[in-house]
Specification:
By secondary structure, the chain is α/β, with parallel strands linked by helices. Helix content is 35%, strand content 23%. It has a seven-stranded mixed β-sheet with strand order 3-4-2-1-5-6-7, sandwiched between helices. Strands 9-8-11-10-12-13-14 form a seven-stranded mixed β-sheet, with helices on both faces.
Length: 291
Amino acid sequence: MAIWLTENSKIIVQGMTGGEGTKHTRRMLASGAKVVGGVNARKAGTTHEGLPVFGTVKEAMEKTGADVSVVFVPPAFTKDAVKEAIDAEIPLCVVITEGVPVHDSTEFWAYAVEKGNKTRIIGPNCPGIASPGASNAGIIPADITTAGRIGLVSKSGTLTYQLMYELRDFGFSTAVGIGGDPVIGTTHIDALQAFQDDPDTDAIVMIGEIGGDAEERAAAYVEQHITKPVVAYVAGFTAPEGKTMGHAGAIVSGSAGTAQAKKEALEKVGVRVGKTPSETARLMREIMQAR
């Protein structure tokens, strides 16, 4: 069992014929993911990496039965690509592209809501989603962990990989990289609830970072709705005030959005928070060993 991405998921790649699209299509195929085609209006009717290229997402879905799209198009064209996926009502759209203008992200997120939330958006500026041993949609390395019963949701790509690797002996049901931009589709709360509802996830790792109040809102949600054990890590304890750090959303103002404030909010509701990624892995290891 996994959340949102299973061994039966059929993936198309918007922007498959570009450099990044090509590289990661190969990696997804090598991992065993069912990539069934790509979308590029200028190259419709051709093949690429042995897969058919379609003119639109709608056509690709009709011809292949695809239910997941991974977006590897340049930032200037991402909004239109995501809106096309929403119009086609594909169930899951994973937006890998970095540098998408916040206004564009706001627009396609609102468009998804307006269209009835038939398309779940993950990202933008994210590593995607992986259900080890089942499927992989995005850029998460497929060989760093095993299938297991931990769920992971993270703002950071590299910290996603580190926790997956450090806990590889227990393994993961699904790892979701939600991205660190100020406006994203799927949130910590969405993933927490999905893992809560998944009978094959026993415990949850949540990785946050400085900036915004997503982690504080997630803490309040955990208190009310999540009964499974949660451990967390918040990146950015040494970040200087008022400076954007890495992700566009990672900026603090005064005490708002600091790592310490997020840590305190999470610990207040019983979430164990590690001071480092490795300590976070150790806390989860203790939980899993006690089960």
